[in-house]
Amino acid sequence: MPLVFVCSLVYLTSGIRVGPRGDSPPFDIDEAHKLSESYYYHLFFEQGAWRHADWQADFYARTNPPVAKYVFGAALAAAGLHVHDRRLQDDFAALWRTPDALRRKVPDAMLRVTRGVSVTYGALVCALLFWIGQRMAGLLAGILAASLLLANPSFLQTARGGLTDTILLFHLTLIVPASLCAARTLRERSARGRLLAMTVLVPGLVTALATGSKMNGALAGPVYAGSLLLAAVVEPGAWRRGRLIARSLLAGGLAAVVAVAVLVVLDPTLQGRPLGRLHEAFVVFGDWMVKQQIEPGPALLDLRERAAYLGVLTLRVRELTPLSRPLAWAGSGLMVIGFCLGLVTLATRSLRSDTVVVLCWIVGVVAGVTLWMPVAHYRYTLPPALPIILAAAIGLAALPRAGGLILAVARRASAGPGPLTALTGAAAVAALGLGVTWVADPVHLDPRAHGDLPRPDVERSYLDAAQSRPRSPDSQQRVGILYLMRGRSEEAADRFAAALNLVPHDPPADGPSAVRRSILLFDLARARAGAGDLAGARDALREHVAAVQRVRAGLRSGDPFVLAAFDRLIAERAAMAADLRSPRVDAGRRLTAARDSRPERAPQLSRLSRSGSAPARASRGSAGGTPRRGRRSMPA
Question: Which residues have a Cβ under 8 Å from the Cβ of 342 and sit 6 or more positions away?
C-alpha cells in the first residue's frame, strides 16, 4: 500500500506545471475560488472568530462545508502563505468569465500548494482502492483498481488541479475500512473501549469529515449504517444474528450523533440549531441546483438521463473518444464485462461480512449519486466512479478463472463447479451486461456532452431514438439540440415545439416538468431566432420568462442569494425579449449564441483522450461548488 501511494503520487505530480510558461493542467477558475475559501481557515484557526458575520453572510460559507477549506488553509499556512481576506473571492466574482485575467490574480506559489494537496489526496485514494481490491480479490485486483483509477481522465484532471474533490473521494472511500473494522469488532468479543472507538467514534469522525468535505459525503453515513446492518443479517444463528442487528442499529445511531457533533464543532454555520441549519443548507443547495439546471445546464431531469450519463462516463467513455472503433469498443467492453463479473463474483461468493460491506458501499454510492445528480458535469461522476472501478477490477481479475471454468464445463471436465452453476453465473453476467449497456447508452446524453458528434452514426442514433420514441420529450429535445448545433434552426424549432407539446402546460412549480418546460421554451426561442422568426422567438421568450417565474415561485428555501440569481436570470431573459422588438439590435444572433457561448459547457470527451485529462475550461465549477451569477456549481 505505501508503494502504491508513492508511485501514484509520483505519477500524478509528474503532470503538474505552474508558472509563466503556462499551467498543466490548464488553470481552472474554481482553483481561484478554492484558494479564496482558505480565508475561513484564517477565521476559524488563526483568529478564532467563530461568530464572524461572514460565516452567515457568505452563501458559500453556508452551503460549502468547511473541511476542505481548512485542509487547503493549513497547507498554505505551513508554506508561509495566508489568505486573510475575501479579495480573491471578489476577484473571482468579477473575473470568472475571463480566466486569463483571473489567473493573473492567483499567486503561483499558492497554486502549487493547493495542487500538491490535491495530488496527495488523489494518491491516498489510489492506495485505499488498491487495499480494498487486494483484500477482496487478491493482489491483481488491487493493482487493477489503482491502475484503472489512474487511467481515468476525469480523475487525472481533477487530482492534478487545485480543487477539493480528491479530499471528498478520500474520506468517502475511507468509510470502507472503517466499516470493515467496525463489523469485525461487533462480531468479536471486544473490550468496551475498543468497541466504542471502532464502531462509533472512528466511523462518526470519518462520516463527519466526508460530509464536511462536500455535501455528497453525507452518503458515508447511510452507507456505514447499512453495511453494519447487512453484515449482521448474514451472520449464522438466529440468536447471534438478532444480537448483532441490535448492536449494529445502536452503533449506527451513535455514530450519526458523533458525526453531527463533530460537524457542529468544525462548522460555525451549524452552531445554535445544527440539525435545522444542516437541513436548510441541503434545501438551499437543492434550490440552487434548480437554477443551474435552467442555466447553464445541461440538466439531468430524470433517472434515465442520470444513469446514462454516469454509465457512459464511467464505463463507456472510450467510445466517445477519437480512438479507433475496435479499440474503443474493446476498452468499453472490458470495463462493462469486468464491472458485471465483479458484481456477480461478490454477490455469489459465500456471504461474509466483508463482502457485504463492500457491496453496500458500491451500491450505496452509485445509487445515491445517480438519484441526486442534477446537471451533466463530469466531476459529479467521480464518487461513483471509484466503486465502479473497484467492481471492474475485481471482475477483470476473476476473468481468466471464470473463462477457464466455462471452458471446463463446455468440455465436460470433472474439475470445477457443476455445469448448472457455471452456466448460471455466465448467464447472470451476460444479462447484467446487457442491462448495463442499455442503461449506459450514449444516445441519452445531451448532445452538448457528447464528444464525438461529427461521426454520422452518432447523429443517426439520436434520430432513431426520437423516431422509436415519438412520445418522449427528452428524445425530441436532444434531436433539437443536435440540429441547433448543426445550424439547422428550422428543424430544431420543429423538434422543440414537438417536445413542448409532450410536456404539461401547467406542471407543478416544484417538479422537473416545470424546469424542462422552461428550458425547452428558451431553446425554442433560440431556434426560431436562428431561423429568422424573431416574432416567434419573442413569444417563446415571454413564455420562457413566465415559466422561470413559475419555477422560482416553487422554490422551497426562499434564500435571498438564490432568489436574486433567479431574478437576474429573469431580467436578462426579459431584456432579450425586449431587444427582439428593436431592429437596431442584432438580438437574434445574440439569442442564438446565448447558451453556446458559455464557458461552462459540458466537457468535450474527445479532448479528454488527447490530453489525458479533461479540459479545464470546458466546464466551469468543481465538485464542491463555486456557483457565481449563472455559472454551474459543482458540489460533488
Answer: 390, 391, 392, 393, 394, 395, 396, 398
